[in-house]
Design a protein that fits this description.
- The complex is a heterodimer of chains A (about 650) and B (about 500).
- Chain A contains 25 helices and 6 strands.
- In chain A, the strands form 3 sheets. Chain A has a two-stranded antiparallel ribbon. In chain A, strands 3-4 form a two-stranded antiparallel sheet. In chain A, strands 5-6 form a two-stranded antiparallel sheet.
- In chain A, helix 2 packs parallel to helix 4, helix 3 packs antiparallel against helix 20 and helix 9 runs antiparallel to helix 12.
- The model of chain A has no long low-confidence stretch (mean pLDDT about 85).
- Chain B has one domain.
- A two-stranded antiparallel ribbon of chain B has the order 1-2.
- In chain B, strand 1 and strand 2 form a beta hairpin.
- The chains are: A mainly alpha (about 650), B mainly alpha (about 500).
- At the A-B interface, strand 3, helix 5, helix 6 and helix 24 of A face helix 6, helix 11, helix 16 and helix 17 of B.
Chain lengths: ~650, ~500
């Protein structure tokens, strides 16, 4: 651990967006009615430049010692100490993944800030929007920089609440409010698992610090490791429990099955927000978390990693099937995000720790990086389309390539990238993931191939549906495609979606910090690419022009189609549990019991007292004769008691 | 600092309020007194931090009162009581501010508020059980009048219920204190906390006295199943009454459980710890589920107080240093946050004349300040990092997890589940009130918070943020004192 006072400026990267939040939150309405957007962009640009500088310094100058990237901790302050060993520290941890995430978060956030300038123009609560964006960016940066597992939990909650605020930005729409609540509560449930996981892990590791925790729990033979493996519950070791529970938190944020139900609804938020939070950054927090603790998962609990691999690939396939049937373009993209995060998750799941085995880890982070670019691009493109046609539904679109030429080309690039067509960025990262899966888990590999085909299909279904299919007719549409702030981010991101694949990613990010060559094998790529092309061709056949083939196929596979269209009834299942069990069978009885039994007992004792005193108050009549009778009865009773009970 | 000022100042203020020539002057005196209280509390905190005291008690002073019974006015503070005094001072200022425009008998209203604060300060600085009990009673009686005279709804019923249940609690405390006096070796009997602490009381006696004291004080802090005065009392009380009730009175109970019952009878506490833990866990979860079904904002907040105060008792029952520290944090945090929540509910009620969640909707559009504050209070209640609730609950969790047996783990996890349920009911209440389309046309004309309402809210929010953003100062203040309590518990075993 090198001490590097020169890197203290890093703290500014998260603090600048926070400053934006404070300024616009407190004074936005009065003083920054229109200028808040520009000021925000300046702040986030500074953050981005600092992040670039940090990345340059870290990757090329300071980070590597003896060919291995080291973790650097420039700042650490004790925030709240529980015991001598356990304390929440506020710190900054720089290592390859956190530096990469710095770039992703500040970069995408900058694009979204610029895009919103035009997209959100004229909104009544414009400054508040930027304040919330700043809050989110701050929290997300804090999350990726966290050096302490409790610190990450805190920022984890903060991104959750910023997401809540932004999904509910259009707060007068009941659907937006419902979606915001749902997102918060579902992820909160998952976070409960995370919290308990932290308690379990920290109890055994006797630290909350990431580095120490990893070092202690990923080294078989340490006292802490033996304690964590030695004790258990229901036949499963504490370490496995702890790591599974931490993963539960990650699964909630990253919308893994069955905790995914909030993500599609989260699309109620403004579209740029979906691009930032629900596509590029917050939803990959779960992947980041697993990657952060990867040595522990990989060395100490491979069984959990295997579970992660299967959850990942099933989520991926499941989401891809649903995506094929949705008609709201943002929802298609949301399911596609779920599916792609599934790829990242299972890539981690099939990865080993050191050397060549670590391919899955590097590939997962690589995919996280490229996905952030092309998925943000897709969402922003969808934003332009929605802005133009004033609808989210595919039926209101079609033939838009003439009206929206820039959007059309950039959207096409992103679709090719996500479908894994060379030489676009997604091809490279997905190829590496498939390769890792192929080596370690054949079943995962084959499911992933299937998902890749579906991905290409539904993405091009979307593409043809928006830009081809039928001539565009809509009298509400705007006259022109958009202004500079709307289109510049699209172009910039599309450059990334084309070129990012050529970055030798394994040189920078790998599980053990050493250089990892990630070669491509042409022979291996033939199958995935042809599956992708096949998906595109089918989409072309079905959707390039308006025809009745899609409907015929849908009615031929009625059962599957309808279940997928209804998202396999997960929402209904949750509704049945909450509305059918939790509220009527737990909440109501608790409230009833309290009012009638517990409080009833209190009131009963009061009325009993009152009743008894009512009855006996007549005894004190002041007349002598009744008193004599009471006296006599008393004497008799006492004598009886003394004679027959006491004396024996 | 001479602690007597914490008694004399409210006393003088109370007289000034009562003797003020015009009703409008009463509130000025009241606010001035409350502000001075706050200044003194902050000063006390700073001086306490700077002081190097060699015993557990700082700023001790003793005044004879009834020497033949060894009853005296023995004053002194430690970190826990300083934290409580700070809390009280914050809540009092905010409470006076929101009562600025009370129309019905303002003089008497403010008099009672100040009298209540006098009781609270006296309670927190007393080291003599007899005077401690005296101040406890002093803090109960004004509440009866506040609810009975200025309340709303079925106020007589609620006032009676609250007073009777709290009096029952006090009676148990009184019996406990007397029993404690006689449990000490003959001739050495004392009401002095510092002396009783030194006398060894046999375990069998502790087992008898502890429940009296713990349940007695527990009733004040909503110990299940003696919590039912909480919803009725809060919902009928005027705004400042609810704030004082939740922010101060319930803390008297928690403080008593810790300072009197647990500290003086460590063997009793150890013996009953499992019972306390189970009752606390029931209160936490059951309170949370009951909250979920409430329709009135005040009932929601009152039931959630039952749930949150469960954490205080859970922390005390766990008998680990971290958990007890967490319990103290929770007292302070809950006091600030619930006072804030009740203040906001009062502000909404004054405008809409309803507290039914179903009647609310879209108030963010017309009342941006008030709804923002409501969000902050709600987020604090559901434990958002950066606000005080998170710090307190996490400390209790960490402390509870130190107990290794599976049963404690299960209870901690069960208590943890409440954070999900809390999210459900808070988002329901706040979401329905602030968000969504505007429920009624006439809501359009409402005016946002006035200066006094704003100031009250800001003061409480600052307190919440001070703990939530930088908990280390509170930790440094409280931990040495909880360490001493823990030392006593461990050495008695």
């Amino acid at each position: 651990m090198n001490a590097m006072p020169a890197t203290i400026y890093i703290i500014l990267i998260p603090l600048l967006p926070l400053l934006g939040f404070l300024i616009f939150g407190l004074f936005g309405k009065k003083y920054f009615k229109t200028s808040s957007g520009l000021v925000s962009i300046i702040l986030i640009s500074l953050s981005f430049l600092l992040a670039l500088y940090t990345a340059y310094t870290y990757f090329f100058i300071l980070g590597r010692t003896d060919g291995v990237y080291q973790a650097i901790k420039p700042i650490q302050l004790t925030w709240l100490s529980f015991t001598q060993a356990l304390s929440i520290d506020m710190g900054i941890l720089l290592d390859p993944i956190s530096v990469m995430m710095l770039l992703v978060v500040t970069g995408v956030s900058l694009m979204v800030h610029i895009f919103s300038l035009s997209y959100m123009k004229g909104e009544e609560r414009f400054p508040i929007y930027y304040a919330f964006l700043g809050l989110f960016t701050f929290s997300m940066l804090g999350l990726v920089l966290s050096s302490n597992i409790f610190q990450i939990y805190m920022f984890w909650e903060l991104v959750g609440v910023s997401s809540f605020l932004l999904i509910g930005y259009y707060y007068d729409r009941p659907s937006a409010v419902a979606a915001a609540k749902k997102a918060f509560i579902v992820t909160r449930f998952a976070d409960l698992g995370f919290l308990i996981g932290i308690l379990v892990l920290s109890y055994h590791a006797q630290t909350l610090d990431f580095q120490t925790l990893i070092q202690r729990l990923a080294t078989p033979g340490t006292v802490q490791f033996s304690s964590a493996v030695g004790s258990g519950f229901l036949g499963i070791s504490a370490l496995t429990w702890g790591l599974s529970l931490v993963f539960m938190g990650g699964a909630g944020k990253s919308a893994m099955m069955p905790l995914h139900i909030w993500l599609p609804d989260a699309m109620e938020g403004p579209t740029p927000v979906s691009a930032l939070i629900h596509a590029a950054t917050m939803v990959v927090a779960g992947v980041f978390l697993v990657a952060r603790l990867f040595p522990v998962y990989s060395i100490s609990a491979p069984i959990v990693l295997r579970m992660i691999a299967f959850i990942g690939v099933f989520t991926s396939l499941f989401a891809a099937i649903i995506a094929c049937t949705q008609t709201d373009i943002k929802r298609v993209l949301a399911y596609s995000t779920m599916s792609q995060i599934g790829f990242m998750m299972f890539a981690l799941g099939v990865s080993g720790y050191s050397g060549e085995d670590g391919l899955g880890y590097a590939a997962s982070q690589f995919h996280l990086f490229t996905h952030a670019l092309f998925k943000a691009l897709l969402f922003l493109g969808a934003g332009v389309v929605i802005h133009y046609v004033h609808s989210n539904e595919m039926k209101d679109m079609g033939g838009l390539r003439k009206q929206l030429p820039v959007t059309h080309i950039t959207f096409l690039i992103a679709c090719l990238a996500i479908s894994g067509i060379p030489p676009f960025a997604g091809f490279f990262s997905k190829e590496e993931i498939l390769m890792a899966a192929h080596e370690h888990e054949p079943l995962v590999y084959w499911l992933a191939i299937l998902t890749s085909g579906l991905t290409a299909f539904y993405m091009f279904r979307l593409y043809f549906g928006i830009f081809w299919s039928k001539p565009f007719r809509n009298e509400h549409a705007h006259g022109h495609e958009g202004t500079f702030p709307l289109l510049a981010p699209l172009v910039i991101l599309s450059i990334g979606a084309v070129g990012a694949g050529f970055i030798p990613f394994g040189h920078f990010v790998s599980a053990d910090g050493r250089i990892l060559e990630m070669p491509l094998h042409v022979g291996f790529s033939v199958l995935p690419v042809s599956v992708g092309v096949a998906g595109i061709l089918i989409a072309f056949w079905l959707y390039q022009t308006k025809n009745d083939r899609p409907d015929r196929i849908a009615s031929a596979w009625k059962g599957l189609y309808r279940s997928a269209y209804h998202k396999f009834y997960f929402d209904e299942l949750y509704m049945a549990v909450t509305k059918g069990i939790l509220f009527p069978l737990v909440g109501k009885p608790a409230a009833w019991f309290d009012r009638n039994i517990v409080d009833g007992a209190v009131n009963a004792s009061a009325s009993l007292t009152q009743g008894v005193s009512d009855r006996i108050k007549g005894m004190q009549s002041g007349r002598v004769q009744p008193y004599a009778v009471y006296f006599l009865i008393g004497v008799l009773l006492l004598s009886f008691f003394l004679l027959y009970i006491w004396i024996r | 600092m001479n602690l007597l000022i914490l008694i004399t100042l409210p006393l003088l203020t109370a007289f000034a309020v009562l003797l003020s020539p015009k009703p409008q002057h009463a509130r000025v005196f009241s606010l001035a007194g409350a502000t001075l209280q706050l200044l003194i509390a902050v000063l006390l905190f700073l001086q306490y931090r700077a002081s190097v005291s060699n015993g557990p008690w700082a700023f001790e002073s003793m005044y004879d009162w009834y020497p033949s019974w060894h009853i005296g006015l023995h004053l002194g503070v430690d970190g826990i009581s300083v934290a409580m005094i700070l809390l009280t001072a914050f809540v009092v200022v905010a409470g006076v501010l929101v009562s600025w425009n009370v129309e019905k008998m303002p003089k008497e209203f403010h008099f009672l508020l100040i009298l209540l604060s006098l009781g609270a300060y006296g309670f927190f600085i007393s080291l003599d059980l007899f005077t401690l009990f005296f101040f406890l009673e002093l803090a109960v009686i004004p509440k009866y009048l506040l609810i009975g005279v200025w309340g709303s709804g079925k106020k007589e019923y609620s006032a009676n219920k609250l007073a009777l249940m709290l009096m029952a609690g006090s009676a148990l405390v009184l019996i406990g204190i007397l029993a404690l006096y006689y449990a000490q070796p003959a001739g050495a009997g004392s009401f002095d906390l510092t002396l009783i602490g030194k006398n060894n009381i046999p375990e069998s006696t502790q087992k008898v006295i502890f429940p009296l004291l713990f349940v007695g004080f527990g009733i004040f802090t909503a110990l299940f199943p003696f919590h039912t005065w909480v919803p009725d009392g809060h919902s009928s009380a005027p705004t400042a009454g609810s704030m004082f009730l939740a922010g101060i009175s319930m803390k008297l109970g928690g403080y008593g459980c810790l300072r009197v019952a647990t500290y003086l009878l460590p063997l009793g506490a150890t013996y009953y710890s499992n019972t306390i833990i189970v009752l606390a866990a029931i209160a936490i979860l059951y309170g949370a589920f009951a909250t979920m079904m409430q329709n009135d904002l005040k009932y929601i907040n009152a039931y959630s107080s039952v749930s949150h105060c469960g954490f205080v008792l859970l922390g005390i029952g766990m008998l680990t240093k971290t958990a007890i520290t967490g319990a103290v944090f929770q007292m302070v945090s809950h006091g600030l946050m619930t006072a804030l929540f009740f203040a906001v509910i009062g502000m909404v009620y004054e405008r809409t004349h309803t507290r039914l969640v179903a009647q609310m909707g879209g108030l963010m559009k017309v009342l941006p300040f008030i709804t923002t504050i409501m969000f902050i209070a709600g987020l604090c209640s559901l434990g958002l990092p950066g606000l005080s609730g998170f710090v307190a609950e996490m400390t209790v969790f960490m402390g509870s997890w130190e107990k290794v047996e599976t049963i404690y783990r299960v209870i901690t996890i069960a208590a943890g589940m409440s954070i999900v349920v809390t999210a459900v009911y808070i988002l329901r209440a706040v979401g329905q009130t602030a968000m969504g389309p505007l429920a009624h046309e006439e809501y359009k004309g409402y005016r946002d918070a006035s200066w006094n309402e704003k100031l009250a809210a800001i003061i409480l929010v600052l307190g919440i943020l001070a703990i939530g953003l930088a908990p280390f100062w509170l930790n440094d203040l409280v931990t040495p004192s909880t360490e001493l309590i823990m030392k006593k518990i461990l050495s008695s075993k």
